[in-house]
Each structure stands twice: as C-alpha cells, then as structure tokens.
C-alpha cells in the first residue's frame, strides 16, 4: 500500500509547517489529488489517521479534492479535459500535449491552532 509512504511524507511536511508557525494542533488539511495520481483517497485517509494517532495531528480533518486530468495544446493555445487517456488535442489532433493538472498530489491548505 503506497498510500502509507505518501501519508508519511505528508505528515513530515505538515510537521515542518506546524513548527514554523508554532502551532499546537492540526485542525485540517486540504489535498488536491490528481485523477491519475494513483492515490486512493480512502486508503490515504486511513493511513493518515493511523500515523497521526497520539500526535499533535490526531483528529485532524483530511479534505481531499480530486483534480481532473487536463491537457494543454501549444499550437492551439487551449486547454481541455483528457478523457479515456486520450492524450491528444481535441481541436487539432496534436499528440504532443502538455499535461497541466490531474497527475500530482499536493497540499493546498493547512489549518492549525
Ligand atoms: Zn491543438
């Protein structure tokens, strides 16, 4: 279950942020999870709660938004949703598109007290 190592690195990042801000407790964390980031939200949430049990982060709420996969075509200067792993521009058929969202996992907000 690779969610365990992801949860561990999230906890490391959050702990750094908390110490920078002299925070005593973690209230909530908001994550953006890319549609094809291969992270299962339920599994990540489970791991996060297991790791944070008994720590200053215990009981924090984990909010997760799924970010859809989007591509960008340079010649057309347009972006569009990528569906069914069809990595091509729907306007001109260009296959050298750039993936602009939906691949990564990121922390967008940390709420502490
Ligand atoms: Zn195009």
Record keyword descriptors for this entry.
single chain; alpha+beta; hypothetical protein PF0899 fold; 3-stranded mixed beta sheet; 3-stranded antiparallel beta sheet; 2 helices; about 30% strand; elongated; binds zinc ion
Description of the structure:
The chain is an alpha+beta fold. It has a domain at 3-68 and 101-112: hypothetical protein PF0899 fold (2-Layer Sandwich). Helices cover 27% and strands 32% of the residues. It has 2 helices and 6 strands. It has helices at 3-20, 41-52; strands at residues 26-34, 61-67, 70-73, 78-81, 98-101, 105-112. The strands form 2 sheets. It has a 3-stranded mixed β-sheet, with helices on one face. Helix 1 (3-20) crosses helix 2. The chain is elongated. 18% of the residues are buried. The mean pLDDT is 96.
């Amino acid at each position: 279950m690779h969610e365990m190592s992801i949860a561990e690195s999230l906890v490391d990042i959050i702990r750094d942020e908390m110490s920078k801000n002299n925070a005593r407790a973690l209230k909530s964390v908001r994550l953006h999870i890319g549609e094809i980031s291969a992270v299962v939200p339920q599994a990540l949430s489970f791991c996060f709660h297991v790791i944070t049990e008994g720590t200053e982060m215990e009981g924090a709420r984990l909010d997760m938004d799924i970010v859809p996969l989007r591509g960008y075509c340079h010649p057309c200067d347009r972006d569009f949703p990528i569906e069914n792993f069809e990595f091509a521009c729907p306007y001109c058929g260009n296959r050298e598109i750039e993936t602009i969202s939906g691949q990564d996992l990121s922390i967008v907000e940390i709420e502490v007290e």
